[in-house]
């Protein structure tokens, strides 16, 4: 079983060190400890993170709630808030970001570890269910169900612009937002019954209906340029019936 990577966002050095030691003793991996919300999104854009432990009062211009809101726009990583502010206003602000947990400071070690166990257990269950659905061939010809916050929603395949490989995951991009599936791109393609998708690069499969223009090296979709690898160019040409 791969280690669970936890990002700790806490501007109190002593508390951050205590949390890191507790997580390590409990068998988790601390991906990093950050003190400012401004550093969070760029870090998780480039590093695997399974859960975020987020203090609400942070150094810098962004507090934990606003940071969680920015994370939500790009990722589906569970956030557990840690805060000394238990007033209704703070709680209501935090609630709007759909956190996986809300722990008041000072907290007992057991409260934190048990909350983490529940969050990770729920995440693993949902991923297993999603995996089972795809393995059972329940990806329909025109739609797929993907996780969005705390629910599964229907996504029409024609609304997908492109699919991007991300380690052992793949990220689906539509005009409105992105979704992450816990399967590799190759496996997603293997179950795909929609013939409008074509691989253009080892990292990208695109919906040919979404292509706005292309040249010898790139396709352009919704203002984004995606590179075309030589090894995939012939298949793209065939799909588009280019002369």
Q: Could you give a short description of this structure?
A:
The protein contains 7 helices and 15 strands. It is of the alpha/beta class and 243 residues long.
Question: Helices and strands in order, then pairings?
Answer:
Layout: E1 5-9, H1 13-25, E2 29-34, H2 40-46, E3 51-55, H3 64-74, E4 79-83, H4 88-95, E5 101-104, H5 109-135, E6 143-148, E7 151-156, E8 160-166, E9 169-174, E10 178-181, H6 185-191, E11 197-201, E12 204-207, E13 213-214, E14 218-221, E15 224-227, H7 230-240
Parallel strand pairs: 1-2, 1-3, 3-4, 4-5
Antiparallel strand pairs: 6-7, 8-9, 8-12, 9-10, 11-12, 13-14, 14-15
Structure commentary:
This protein has 243 residues and is of the alpha/beta class. It has 2 domains: 5-129, 3-Layer(aba) Sandwich (Rossmann fold), CATH 3.40.50.2300; 140-240, LytTr DNA-binding domain (OB fold (Dihydrolipoamide Acetyltransferase, E2P), Beta Barrel), CATH 2.40.50.1020. It is 35% helix and 30% strand. The chain has helices spanning 13-25, 40-46, 64-74, 88-95, 109-135, 185-191, 230-240; strands at 5-9, 29-34, 51-55, 79-83, 101-104, 143-148, 151-156, 160-166, 169-174, 178-181, 197-201, 204-207, 213-214, 218-221, 224-227. The strands form 4 sheets. A 5-stranded parallel sheet has the order 2-1-3-4-5, with helices on both faces. A hairpin with a 2-residue loop joins strand 14 and strand 15. The longest helix has 27 residues, at 109-135. The chain is elongated and about 65 Å long. The model is unreliable at 132-138 (pLDDT under 50).
